[in-house]
Design brief:
This protein has helices at about 75-80, 120-125, 240-245, 355-365, 375-380, 385-390, 400-415, 430-445; strands at about 5-10, 25-30, 45-50, 55, 70-75, 90-100, 110-115, 135, 145-155, 160, 165-170, 175-185, 190-195, 195-200, 210, 210-220, 235-240, 250-260, 265-275, 275-285, 300-305, 310-315, 335-340, 350-355, 465-470, 470-475, 485. By secondary structure, it is an alpha+beta fold. A 7-stranded mixed sheet has the order 21-18-23-16-24-25-26, with no helix packed on it. The radius of gyration is 24 Å and the shape is globular.
Length: about 475
């Protein structure tokens, strides 16, 4: 038994015989080794409630599935901050408390609170948000709303930080977006919801900033092949290589870990290796339960720069007669974990990638006037949105446009992406052709062990992941395989 908290279930029969217990059953959450952790008294601290304004549990226009709706509610923190607090200052939240609407709780699949960067909207010439705004179709987050502050899934409880740690809010960023995924498999009508979260603020700034590290082993068909049907166990592996954690400025302290899969999840675990030696389990769930997806403390309290993380997600597809795809719908699957930690780092997520994508990009020719160069160079010149996987934009744009607009930030987040002319926002088409060949050949394809079309000498890619941060993502090769194992 690990020295960590876990859910316990009990049932009481009418006698000492093993008979059905009826309604005499319940559950509790505790640490069986060292006992429950005492909760600090935070009653005197100011609070802010963020709740859906009785949103309809039906998909908005453009929703991809009637039984799965994603709704966002926008909040202006400048209006909501407790008296004496200023939006330009750093304000720390020390406790997140989920609030569930009893009448609609069964429809709530997950909630995520994001911080939004209004400057990204201004650079694109988009209108700002309004307080209380509801976005009825929000499967893809609004532009700039990517800073994950608080994840919640079915079974999660309060998150309370150590007394010197808090999740930072403010610092000039006034907008928050609360995304809720509702699952309504029977298409019940007339359902509205006011679930949300209560933020408890510290009375003064704390020494350390908390953050969320997302470990994404597969959440879409672009990241994973379908799971085969009719198998009692299908196992997927996902590795976070030392190259990713080496990007941290210092070691990090783990507050808690949450696993996330959907209805077919069987077991999940994350192991830690240091200098190729096994350290221990960051978290183990021998029997994954969709209804108990809580953030749990880890037996490993500190992750060091250069550590390797290995995540395993297993699924039971024996009840299915067709292959199961990866995606955001409840009837699809995911392989995901969130690590709450401190101090905050620039790497906010690590993402599994299909190697086939890079073979296509690097080893196949472009189309039409780009037939003499690689598909990667074609996208660089004509549709950088697809190359960068920029889901925030609905329209194609060239890398010349992106470099002239964001040159300085791209130079920091993705070295080699923009040529030197981006420093003065004066790039021309003549500048971009050699830049495309350089970036695709060295920074992208070369990193995956692939040569660039028309050179097909190196056609077997290294498996790998992408280490992501606020300014972009960096491709990193990994030792793990992305092969689904069945037994």
């Amino acid at each position: 038994i690990q020295n960590t908290s876990r859910w316990m279930h009990w049932a009481l029969g009418s006698s000492h015989d093993f008979v059905y217990h009826g309604t005499a059953r319940a559950q509790f959450h505790t640490n069986l080794v060292s006992g429950p952790t005492p909760s600090p008294n935070l009653d005197a601290l100011p609070e802010v409630d963020l709740r859906m304004p009785n949103a309809s549990v039906i998909p908005g226009e453009g929703g991809s599935d009637p039984s799965n709706s994603y709704v966002c509610s926008i909040f202006d923190l400048e209006q909501l901050l407790p008296q004496g607090m200023n939006i330009s200052d750093k304000n720390h939240v020390v406790k997140f408390s989920p609030f569930m609407n009893a009448a609609s709780e069964k429809y709530v699949h997950h909630m995520i609170l994001y911080g939004c960067d209004e400057e990204m909207m201004k650079m694109r010439g988009l209108a700002s948000f309004t307080h209380g705004q509801v976005i009825g179709e929000c499967q893809g987050m609004p532009l700039g709303c990517y800073d994950q502050k608080w994840p919640w899934a079915v079974g999660s409880t309060d998150v309370i930080f150590p007394d010197h740690v808090g999740m930072p809010f403010g610092e000039g960023k006034r907008w928050l977006a609360l995304q809720i995924h509702y699952y309504n498999p029977n298409l019940d009508e007339g359902v509205t919801d006011s679930s949300g979260v209560r933020l408890t603020f510290s009375s003064a700034p704390r020494a350390q900033d908390a953050a969320v590290l997302v470990l994404n082993g597969g959440t879409s068909s672009k990241m994973r092949d379908d799971l085969p049907q009719g198998q009692s166990e299908v196992k997927l592996d996902f590795a976070v290589p030392p190259e990713c954690t080496s990007k941290w400025s210092e070691d990090i302290n783990v507050v808690g870990v949450m696993h996330h899969a959907h209805l077919l999840g069987k077991y999940l675990n994350i192991e830690v290796l240091r200098d190729d030696s096994y350290v221990g389990a960051l978290r183990v769930e021998h029997l994954y339960d969709f209804n108990h997806q809580s953030l749990e403390e880890s037996a490993i309290k500190t992750l060091k720069k250069g550590d390797e993380l290995r995540m395993t997600c297993a699924y039971d597809t024996s009840s299915k007669t067709e292959a199961i795809s990866f995606g955001s719908l409840t009837q699809q699957e995911m392989c995901l974990a969130a690590v709450m930690y401190y101090p905050a780092q620039k790497v906010s997520g690590v993402f599994h990638r299909k190697t086939e994508d890079y073979v296509t990009l690097c080893q196949t020719p472009g189309l039409s006037i780009f037939s003499g160069v690689s598909r990667c160079e074609m996208l660089y010149m004509a549709d950088a949105r697809m190359l960068l996987r920029d889901h925030s934009s609905q329209n194609a744009y060239s890398m010349m446009e992106a470099c002239n607009l964001y040159g300085a930030s791209h130079a920091t987040s993705l070295p080699g992406l923009c040529p030197g002319c981006a420093d003065t926002s004066n790039c021309s088409a003549t500048d971009m052709a050699p830049a495309a060949k350089s970036f695709c050949g060295k920074a992208l394809c070369g990193r995956w062990g692939l040569s660039l079309y028309p050179d097909l000498n190196n056609s077997m890619p290294h498996p790998g992941v992408r280490c992501g941060g606020p300014g972009g993502e960096d491709m990193v090769s990994a030792k793990s395989t992305d092969t689904a194992q069945t037994c």
